[in-house]
Specification:
about 140 residues, alpha+beta, Alpha-Beta Plaits, 6-stranded mixed beta sheet, 6 strands, about 20% helix
């Protein structure tokens, strides 16, 4: 059975796929930077997957999964303005369903956004990371159920 963290990552990708600004340019866990001709775009990465202290019993355990969503842009305008627009769309998409459509997700909580950063080599490109905490539950002996 698939680890529930993987199911959450698939649901996050589905939630932010097709936004007005980034469209279908959503990738998981990229190693290389996004090409200038592929922006605006989003990349999604799995962060820490921490056990909530005191949540364990004989049947289940609760966890907090951090999800990092990074917006990548190339603009002729103000990169902060474009990144803020994408951040707004991501926030709305992530908070639309408090459980991401998954029965084992308890809640989605925004953790904040990093400051927008311009590419030192190309000031027309920028990026900004947004973080969310996903509270979920799985069986004590199997993180896939």
């Amino acid at each position: 059975m698939t680890h529930r963290a993987e199911s959450i990552m698939v649901a996050v990708k589905a939630a932010v796929d097709g936004l007005l600004t980034t469209g279908g340019r959503v990738e998981r866990s990229r190693v290389y930077s996004v090409a200038d001709d592929g922006v605006p775009a989003l990349t999604i990465e799995k962060g820490a997957d921490d056990v909530i202290e005191g949540s364990q019993n004989i049947a289940f355990i609760d966890r907090l999964l951090t999800v990092k969503i990074t917006a990548h842009i190339k603009t002729t305008g103000t990169y902060e303005t474009d990144l803020n627009q994408i951040a707004n769309e991501v926030y709305v998409a992530m908070m639309a369903a408090d459980d991401l459509g998954l029965s084992f997700v308890q809640s989605v909580t925004p953790l904040g956004d990093d400051e927008p950063e311009a590419n030192a080599a190309n000031k027309d490109t920028g990026r900004m990371e947004m973080r969310f905490s996903i509270h979920y539950r799985h069986a004590l002996k199997d993180p896939g159920s």
